[in-house]
Amino acid sequence: MYMPSLAGSTGVVEREPGSGIFGNDNPGIDLSGLILFLRRRWKVIIGTAIVVAILTTLALLQVKPRYSATASVAVQTQKTQVVNIQDVMSGLAPDQATMETQASILRSRRLAGLVVDKLHLDQEPEFNPAVRKQEAFSLLNPGTWFGTRKEAAKQELSPVEAARQRASLVGRVAGAITVAAVPRSYVLTVTATSQSPQLAAQIANTLADIYITDGIAAKYDATKKASAYLAQRVDELRSQAVATDRAAEGYRARAGLVGSDQGSTIASQQMSQLNSQLITARAERAAKEAQLQQLRRLRAGGGDGGVEASGAILQSPLIQQLRSQEGEVVRKIGELRSTYGERHPKIINAEAELRDLRAKISDEVGKVAASTANDVAIERARESTLASSLGQVENAVSAGGTAGVRLRELQRESDANKSIYEVFLNRLKETNQQVDLQQADARVVSGADIPLSASFPKVSQTLAVAILLGLLGGGALAFALERLDNTVRSANLLENIGGGATLAFLPTIKTGLERPEDIVLERPASMVPEALRTLRSSLALADVDNPPQMVMLSSSVPGEGKTFTSVGLARVSAQAGAKTILLDCDTRHPRVHKALGFENEIGLVQVLSGASTFEEALYLDEATGLHVLSAGKGAVNPADMLRSDQMMRLLQRLRNEYKFIVIDSPPFAPLTDSQILAKVVDKMILVVRWGETPLPVVQATIRQLRRVGAPLAGSVLSQVNVLRHAKYGFGDYGYHYSKYSEYYGTAS
């Protein structure tokens, strides 16, 4: 489709297919073209928006308002620790997965079912259609136009039907609840929607309370189950511990194993003690033997110095005392020798005393050696006795070794059972203490208040969106209508497709006249006569040196206004003083006689057939002096008639007698009549009805004109709505007629 477009201030430029949407030469949207488009189609756009708004309003009137109430629940990330005891069910971890899990619990059908039971929502018609009452007739509710719904008789439901009805009820309640997590927090919002604001708040608050109570109940149940399990297990472990302890003690008694708690017997203890004593005796005997051997070896070596230096001698108090006296005597002899001579009596007495002391020391050393030999004999006897006793005890211990292994095995089993029993007993006591100390993992941050305004529908927002969508839909509809409009609405378009210059615009006649053609006579200063005079002037200026004398007017299809244009052009020519004749050659559907108000008994057909003379068939329009030759009646073959020699001679006579000849010919496209006439006239004018004639039809007509070589002077746009035409562009006749109608004269 071709559409007019604005191209600057120089006029209208028609766009070719594939150019801009609103007529710009470049792809895209031209602002001026868009404004013109809106001017042309604003009624469609606004009308569509109004219709959508009305329908939306009617729909909103059918919708029952719904109210939303919101309660906030915070998941506890910190827990009060009353006692330092590990919980059976641990607290919630503060992470995203936990928040999603808690949100899913709040959305669960189980909690929704608890809300249904607590608030008795099965008695609410909003959630249970079975208890709804029949609705009275309402003009605004189409659902009541064809009768009201009858209440179904109450009947006993089968278990399956009851379960299905229950599931449907819980599903509706769950669908009315929305749970969302507040970003970057541990808060969950619970929003309940209902037709009753009070019920919406009750549902939200009840669900929050049930959620918290359910969490405490879950912990309580888990703790009770754990406590019951632990109590049962403690009883079992107690029985096992007692049984294994009794088995160990009984085996000890039967095996004759009496000892400490570690399972060691008296024989083993005796063996340990004897072994220790034997080791000690052997050590002491070895020490005595070593001491005796040393004394013997020193005495055998000679001299008392070595013997006296031994440990046994040094340990004798008597020998030490004699040694001390010996030292005093030696010192005394030394002092006497420094004073007296060797033979002095004091020195001799002192030396005698020294010899006596040394003799005593030697005797005492002999006694010590003898005593040591006795000690060695005693230690050897003791060692032998201990070794004999140890051997006896070892035989007893070896005989009871197998029984001790079994006893230790029973003892370890008994100890293990006691240890497990103590662990479970302690955990049972801790768990029993937790039963009454359960804390909730969440708390209500804020309860749901009764909403004061409906959350759905949002009347103002919905209407605004509806109007916006209506405008968009209207724009789309207008654009579709614009694209589907393939009629000729612009002089430039007509010129671009080969229709020649647009010689005139003939506006639509708005005022009522008996015959529209009389507007030239009754309103000569209006736009239509002015346009016809413009057409006559355009023809004269088409060839100043040789202005056309015989002009033919035709159209593509019937009903485009060629007869009106022919009559008007002939009349304004006659009014201008030129001798003018109007020839109606449309013998198939003549209309010139109706336009001028006379009968069509005698006309062109009778003149060419010789049934009447030219003068007899000629009609005079007294108001303008226009001569008219109507089509007449009875044409058998119009094409042959127009091609005849009589027709050629008639046209030549008209050229000789008249200054301006106007021929109203049949439509050009479907018939050959106009093609015959186009070859004998000076100029041809193609009349195109504005906004009605399809563009392909006009293009086909122009191709025919070119094929037959018709002398096309230009085109005329007829029945133009000048106000609407001004919305398709500016710079042509229509623009000036609409803008400056007062300057051109009164409106048509």
Helix content: 55-70%
Task: Please give the number of β-strands.
Answer: 12
Distance between termini?
Answer: 31 Å
3D shape? rod-shaped
What percent strand?
A: 5-15%
Helical stretch tally: 26
State the major sheet.
8 strands, mixed
Report strand order across the widest sheet: 5-12-11-6-10-7-9-8
Radius of gyration: 69 Å
* Low confidence ranges: 1-21
Helix/strand/pairing class, anyone?
Answer: alpha/beta
Quaternary = single chain
Give the averaged pLDDT, no decimals.
Answer: 81
Mind explaining what this structure looks like?
The chain is an alpha/beta fold and 748 residues long. Helices cover 56% and strands 10% of the residues. The strands form 2 sheets. It has an 8-stranded mixed β-sheet with strand order 5-12-11-6-10-7-9-8, sandwiched between helices. A 4-stranded antiparallel β-sheet has the order 2-3-1-4. Strand 11, helix 23 and strand 12 form a beta-alpha-beta unit. Helix 6 runs antiparallel to helix 10. The longest helix is centred in the first third of the chain and has 59 residues. The two termini are 31 Å apart.
